């Protein structure tokens, strides 16, 4: 047997920073790069190993920087390329790595490449994007080339008046999709979006929408599942297309293999573990690991994300088990995460944000995350148990294009039907991407210490910032923050079990508690989590051996109790 190699990224904890909402250093209301540099001691004190920064590139900000107009420049309100170089050195000097978001499925429509491409049908860069002629209905109405729906509502095609064709945009109209079929486009992407930053010392990338580059060339209509509307969800037709693996292989040979990097790909709509292994197995080396989205997709609507349907705990348990176990017996690698900038807060979704339970359930979720195999990802604010925006906030306090476009499309479609809109609003209160984008709560001074701007931050600050903030929790050894720091240490101390161990869930059908085991050789751990606000019976699974409580989130518990308090979590070592 070959010895399993241990690259640095396997044992790492990655902390994701959303630049607009982390810390504002110059009082303009918007977070910035010098603001991140000024918090470097805080980041180091958490015990995280890698900082992942969401897009800070120049951008007209239709999708919070995921619409990039220049890969080689920084959005001026965030700072400069030199500021990023300072941030890279600050991370490196603290022994932390630094990765960027690689967004190369699409650019902004203000990128110079697209500006040229749209100029005329015979422009040399025409083929760098995906252009198609119109179709015409029987009555002569101009129609897009197919019925694909964009992720942000409406058609995935936009008509370009100037050059009289449609271009494809899977996301916003202002985010035209690049044509990866063209080799010159691919080379330009590698050079501008990757090499430029790797040469400055960046340690890798989180790779945005990594399985959408290859769409085939036929672009057929999607089957109709959302009746009564032309545009249909089509992810099955543009994810994991025919040349996907070839493109990633090329990206590795041409660029990534020349540096010591980590890559984590965003891999939506890929339910088959064997397929995911093609991306992350070292045989076909394409990505070091991926985010598989089942856990954060729990409860999303069948026809549209914001038609929330709820979920059962057994579903959470089976998706966690599935994506823990799929690498066993292979040399692939997995990730553990339950938050990012596209999700509601985990305490509000999987725990309880009621005042009496939010701290305890935040700690319970921290226990779960720190016991899971794979590279662990923590999203800014998760370490202090930040929660979703209050339910009273009206839609006008939300900023995200995804929520707002969908809300408006339903308003239009139903002629402002209060029932339909009420359901959308309820879904947004749980799943809205804005919850994660609320400014970081640093202390109890005005605007949560995020900005000194008199009028406040670019986005409304959470009403609870006086009770949930970093300064308060740093002083309190029993805070969520202190708990996260200690369980991150425990994770490293028992790394074979928690980061690398084999996973096994017990009693999947139980809808109140989640009990699972971790095993490495003779060593075992058992994790018991109560996912309800009521006391629950707890029977130790029969794994043989003596149970010794390693860590828990309720005071005065010695581990012999056969009941779990509301939202209690425990980790036992079994010897
Ligand atoms: C990814 C990002 C999301 C963005 C989208 C388009 O899903 O995480 O924030 O809107 O890609 O780039
Ligand atoms: Ca600023």
Report on the structure:
β7 and β8 form a beta hairpin. The protein folds into 3 domains: 13-107 and 182-480, Alpha-Beta Barrel (TIM Barrel), CATH 3.20.20.80; 112-168, Alpha-Beta Complex (Oligo-1,6-glucosidase, domain 2); 502-574, Golgi alpha-mannosidase II (Immunoglobulin-like). It is α/β, with parallel strands linked by helices and 575 residues long. It contains 16 helices and 22 strands. α11 packs parallel to α15 and α12 packs antiparallel against α13. Helix content is 27%, strand content 16%. The strands form 6 sheets. An 8-stranded parallel β-sheet has the order 13-12-11-5-2-1-15-14. The radius of gyration is 24 Å and the shape is globular. The model has no long low-confidence stretch (mean pLDDT 97).
Query: What is the rounded Rg?
Result: 24 Å
Number of domains: 3
CATH H-level superfamily of the largest domain: Glycosidases
Strand content: 15-25%
The strand count comes to: 22
Tally of helical segments: 16
Mean pLDDT, nearest integer?
Answer: 97
Q: Could you describe the largest sheet, including whether it forms a barrel?
A: 8 strands, parallel
Summary tags:
single chain, 575 residues, alpha/beta, TIM Barrel, Oligo-1,6-glucosidase, domain 2, Immunoglobulin-like, 8-stranded parallel β-sheet, 5-stranded antiparallel β-sheet, binds alpha-D-glucopyranose, binds calcium ion
Annotate the secondary structure layout:
Layout: E1 13-17, H1 33-38, H2 40-46, E2 50-53, E3 57-58, E4 70-74, H3 81-93, E5 97-102, H4 112-117, E6 131-132, E7 135-136, E8 142-143, E9 157-160, E10 165-168, H5 183-198, E11 204-207, H6 235-238, H7 244-254, E12 262-266, H8 273-280, E13 289-291, H9 313-325, E14 335-336, H10 346-350, H11 358-370, E15 375-379, H12 401-413, H13 418-431, H14 470-475, H15 480-493, H16 495-498, E16 502-506, E17 513-520, E18 523-530, E19 536-537, E20 547-552, E21 563-564, E22 569-574
Parallel strand pairs: 1-2, 1-15, 2-5, 5-11, 11-12, 12-13, 14-15
Antiparallel strand pairs: 3-4, 6-10, 7-8, 9-10, 16-17, 17-18, 18-22, 19-21, 20-22
């Amino acid at each position: 047997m070959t010895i399993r190699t241990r690259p640095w990224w396997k044992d790492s904890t990655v902390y994701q920073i959303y630049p607009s909402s982390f810390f504002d250093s110059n009082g303009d209301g918007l977070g910035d790069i010098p603001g991140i540099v000024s918090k470097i001691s805080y980041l180091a004190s958490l015990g995280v190993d890698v900082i992942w920064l969401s897009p800070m590139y120049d951008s007209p900000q239709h999708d919070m920087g995921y619409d990039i107009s220049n890969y080689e420049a920084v959005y001026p309100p965030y700072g400069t390329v030199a500021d990023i170089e300072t941030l890279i050195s600050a991370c490196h000097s603290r022994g932390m790595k630094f990765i960027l978001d690689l967004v190369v499925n699409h650019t902004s429509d203000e990128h110079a490449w697209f500006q040229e491409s749209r100029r005329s049908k015979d422009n040399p860069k025409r083929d760098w994007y995906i252009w198609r002629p119109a179709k015409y209905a029987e009555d002569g109405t101009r129609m897009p080339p197919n019925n694909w729906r964009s992720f942000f509502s409406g058609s995935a095609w936009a008509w370009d008046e100037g050059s009289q064709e449609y271009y494809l945009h899977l996301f916003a109209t202002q985010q035209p999709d690049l044509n990866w079929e063209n080799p010159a486009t691919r080379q330009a992407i590698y050079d501008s979006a990757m090499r430029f930053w790797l040469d400055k010392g960046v340690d890798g990338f989180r790779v945005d929408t990594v399985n959408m580059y290859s769409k085939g060339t036929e672009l057929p209509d999607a089957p109709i599942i959302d009746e009564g509307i032309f545009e249909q969800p089509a992810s099955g037709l543009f994810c994991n297309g025919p040349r996907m693996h070839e493109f990633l292989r090329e990206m590795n040979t041409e660029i990534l293999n020349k540096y010591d990097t980590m890559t984590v790909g965003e891999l939506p709509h890929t339910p088959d573990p064997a397929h995911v292994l093609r991306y992350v197995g070292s045989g076909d080396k394409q990505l070091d690991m991926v985010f598989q989205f089942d856990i954060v997709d729990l409860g999303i609507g069948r026809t549209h994300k914001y038609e929330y349907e709820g979920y059962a705990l057994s579903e959470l348990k089976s998706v966690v088990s599935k994506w823990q176990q799929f690498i066993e017996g292979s040399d692939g690698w997995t990730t553990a995460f339950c938050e990012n900038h596209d999700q509601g807060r985990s305490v509000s979704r999987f725990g309880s944000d009621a005042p009496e339970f939010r701290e305890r359930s935040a700690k319970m979720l921290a226990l779960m995350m720190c016991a899971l195999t794979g590279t662990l990802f923590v999203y800014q604010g998760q370490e202090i148990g930040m929660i979703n925006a209050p339910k009273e906030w009206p839609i006008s306090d939300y900023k995200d294009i995804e929520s707002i476009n969908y809300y408006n499309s339903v308003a239009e479609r139903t002629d402002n039907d209060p029932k339909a809109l009420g359901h959308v609003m309820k879904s947004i209160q749980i799943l809205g991407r804005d919850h994660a984008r609320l400014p970081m709560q640093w202390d109890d001074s005005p605007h949560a210490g995020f900005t000194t701007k008199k009028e406040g931050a670019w986005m409304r600050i959470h009403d609870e910032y006086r009770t949930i903030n970093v300064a308060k929790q740093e002083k309190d050894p029993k805070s969520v923050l202190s708990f996260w720091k200690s369980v991150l240490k425990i994770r490293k101390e028992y790394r074979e079990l928690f980061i690398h161990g084999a996973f096994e869930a017990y009693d999947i059908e139980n809808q109140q508690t989640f009990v699972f085991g971790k095993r490495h050789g003779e060593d075992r751990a058992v994790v018991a989590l109560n996912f309800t606000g009521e006391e629950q019976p707890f029977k130790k699974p029969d794994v043989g051996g003596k149970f010794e409580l390693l860590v828990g989130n309720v005071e005065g518990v010695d581990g012999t109790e056969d009941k779990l308090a509301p939202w209690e979590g425990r980790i036992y070592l079994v010897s």
